[in-house]
């Protein structure tokens, strides 16, 4: 998809873009970029020090560039002035071979060449906190702690 991200930002009120990638440990890395700079980022990519991002690079390696994929653009529903983009990593003008997104794209292409279609699932994990930031009255097992809460039933609307 060849989309002009600067025009999209102007049309939709996006002020910033999060250009993101995932490292080898599954940690999302991102750079917040003002919409006024997105045309250059779309062309050249956002620079990251690869050695600091757990991608098996050293300080001797040059910066890598995260080139945003316009097809992945999501305007954040809870903060509409920010657009999130997945990015493809490049090092020395070529795709970073062991970048997780690059590996995934290669596996999808390989599967398609053999007549398969790749499907994935997401395991969402979250924490429930009290309004003041403390832990919730439920343990990781999902059971309520009797010392901090009263019994609850589905019919209880109070």
CATH superfamily of the domain at 7-113: Glutamine synthetase, N-terminal domain
Q: Provide the CATH top-level class of the domain at 7-113.
A: Alpha Beta
Question: Radius of gyration in whole Å, from Cα?
Answer: 21 Å
SSE order, one letter for each helix or strand = HEEHEEEEEH
Mean of the pLDDT scores? 84
Helical percent range?
10-25%
Q: What count of helical segments does DSSP give?
A: 3
Task: Flag low-confidence runs.
Answer: 149-158
* Strand composition percent: 15-25%
> Tally of extended strands?
7
CATH topology of the domain at 7-113: Ubiquitin-like (UB roll)
Descriptive notes:
This protein is of the alpha+beta class and 158 residues long. The protein has a domain at 7-113: Ubiquitin-like (UB roll), CATH 3.10.20.70. Helix content is 18%, strand content 23%. Strands 1, 2, 3, 4, 5, 6 and 7 form a 7-stranded mixed beta sheet that branches.
Fold blueprint:
Elements: H1 5-12, E1 16-22, E2 28-34, H2 38-44, E3 46-48, E4 64-68, E5 74-75, E6 82-91, E7 94-95, H3 100-113
Parallel strand pairs: 1-6
Antiparallel strand pairs: 1-2, 3-4, 4-6, 5-6, 6-7
Write a compact overview of the structure shown:
18% of the residues lie in helices and 23% in strands.
